[in-house]
Amino acid sequence: MNTAARLKARASIIKVPDSSPGILFIGGEQKSFIVERIWRSPIAPAANMVVDVDLDSTGNVTAITAVDAQALAKEQLNQFSGVAQEQGKQVVDMAKAGVGALAARMGKVPLLATGSACLAWFLLPASELNLGFLGSKSLTFWEVLAIDVSSPINMANRGGSHGLWALLGLAALLAPFTVPFLKNRRAKYLNTMLFAYLVVTPIKTWWEFSKALGPFANTAGGVPDSALKEISSVISIGAGAYVLIIASVILVVQAFKARPNSMTTL
Predict the structure, then answer these.
(1) Which residue has the higher pLDDT, 174 or 130?
(2) Which of the residues 89, 138, 146, 179 has the least number of beta carbons within 10 Å of its own beta carbon?
(3) Are the CB atoms for 172 and 194 separated by under 8 Å?
(4) Which pTM value belongs to this model?
(5) What gap in Å lies between CA 57 and CA 7, rounded to an integer?
(6) Is the dihedral of CA 142, 143, 146, 151 positive or negative?
């Protein structure tokens, strides 16, 4: 081992000197030491204590100094931060590479539209319920899909359960990601699934609401004007719904554009 590199070293005490010399663990090796003329700190050595060690040219221990606990904690924190930053950079680089590869296959516009739709689906408020003295609740589109319109109690809460229709919505949301991996040229029309789902969902919800009204519906099978006014005063559209609509329209436009890499594939 290089002599200059061993003049200073960090070690830990694995045995305190008693009737026999103490033992240091340093650089993967064990070295014996005594307190007399070697120990340079006002506190006594203790097991597992971290110390700075001075070595002579032959590797023998010439001085031992206990490392201050606060200084050691700061060093360890700096090391941890450095490792975390390095790993974070690696993760970011991998993510960038993955997004770049996906953008190369999907196209930047479909990828941006699909990514925006995903964010709006789960994070942005798609609807707001004005519950009067109970206050108001903002619901994401995913939360809206869990609402049972036949149960007013359920409508007043964020809870509920996601059934088959909600799962079909997830399939429509994620369908654009599969398009570049399918060789059939008609796969591009999967980009229209989200738009179709957003068109059918309010129709389905309205039908279920009309059915739930039962005897309160008028003879023509519609919803009374009083109910329409009540609904419009309770429910308002949020930013998430608009983002979903815009993203779905962009994907429809992309669906009817040619796919140069697959136009010859049946």
Answers:
(1) 174
(2) 89
(3) yes
(4) 0.59
(5) 7
(6) negative
